[in-house]
Fold:
Amino acid sequence: NMGDPHRNFVDFAHVPVVKRLTRMPVCIDPSHSVGTRAESPDGILDIMHATAQGIIAGANMVLVDFHPMPNKALVDGPQALLLKELPQYLEDIQIARDAYLKRIELVERYQSQS
Structure:
């Protein structure tokens, strides 16, 4: 057992399943899934990795905590990203969204050939 690195276990592989079953937009919450500002060995915050995974899986919305001073937040401080990290976060989401859209284009191209 390597301990409990994240608050909740989340599997964003369920994003397309929920979209298919409900025909509704899907919102992911990587802040509460991860629960900390832990950083991966590649230097990317776990929350950013989780966000990218959800976006690439087709999530329509993201709920993530930001705070100017997480250590003084009344709730969810340990998982809150800094406001100065917002531009990087948005750029990272755009990269993931672009990858998702390219995957859709790929499927459409191959489906049109059959």
Summary: The longest strand covers residues 27-28. The domain at 14-113 is CATH 3.20.20.70 (TIM Barrel). Residues 67 and 74 are 10 Å apart (CA to CA).
